[in-house]
Structure formats: structure tokens, C-alpha cells
Design a protein that fits this description.
This protein has about 130 residues and is mostly beta strands. The longest helix is centred in the C-terminal third of the chain and has 4 residues. About 35% of the residues are buried.
Length: about 130
């Protein structure tokens, strides 16, 4: 049973930083490309960032490029999302997810939430103005 667990959310002021962490257990971690999504009340779940199984490729939502960085440490079975210059619009519950094995890691597949097989419970990020 693959399980994902996010941590690192919290309350931060505009312009501040947070680092989210996602731990994967119960599976072969390096099999999966990983992604981060977010959802705020009344809005659809939104792609934020994704990283290939070996960290060689990444994709980002346009509005977070230059502010957020996704990375992974396969020795620790973790994926991270470093978020800098945070804005109130970044307020949401952030979820990490594992892309279905066997799918090609492309701009199209990485950004579709229905291509992801496993999901964490989410961690709340609140940015105050």
C-alpha cells in the first residue's frame, strides 16, 4: 500500500517562504514521477509542479515559475516544494501525488490530476496580506 504524507504547511506573511515535504512509503519510490497540486475553496484542484523519477525534468505552473522549486531526494524517499515570495493567491491546501507508473513524463501528463495514482492528505498553506 503506497502512502504519501505531506508536511511543512503553515501561516506565513506575503513575501515569506515555506518548504513542503512529501514522504512516500510502501512502494518503490523511484518508480514514480511526483507532482504537487493545490486546491482552495470553490476552485478546482490546480497543478503546481512536477518532477521526473530521477529529478532530471521539471514542470511548473506559470504563476509559480521563479518562485517555487520542486526537488527530490531518492535516498530519503522524499519530494520537496520550496516556495518563496509567497502571495495571498498561493493560499490553498497543497497535495503531493505520484504519477501512474508507465506513463511518459511529459508536459501534458504531468499537469493532469487524473493521471496521478496516489495522493496525500494535503497540508494547508495560508499567506496573509
Amino acid at each position: 500500500q503506497v502512502q504519501l504524507a505531506e508536511s511543512g504547511g503553515g501561516l506565513v506573511q506575503t513575501g515569506g517562504s515555506l518548504e513542503l515535504s512529501c514522504r512516500i512509503s510502501g512502494g518503490t519510490y523511484t518508480t514514480y514521477a511526483m507532482g504537487w497540486f493545490r486546491q482552495s475553496p470553490g476552485r478546482v484542484r490546480e497543478f503546481v509542479a512536477a518532477i521526473s523519477w530521477n529529478g532530471a525534468e521539471t514542470y511548473y505552473l506559470d504563476s509559480v515559475k521563479g518562485r517555487f522549486t520542486i526537488s527530490r531526494d531518492n535516498t530519503k524517499n522524499r519530494v520537496y516544494l520550496q516556495m518563496n515570495s509567497l502571495k495571498p493567491d498561493d493560499t490553498a491546501v497543497y497535495y503531493c501525488a505520484a504519477l501512474s507508473p508507465g506513463l511518459p513524463f511529459t508536459d501534458t501528463t504531468a499537469k493532469r490530476y487524473d493521471e496521478y495514482l496516489y495522493w496525500g492528505q494535503g497540508t494547508q498553506v495560508t499567506v496573509s496580506s
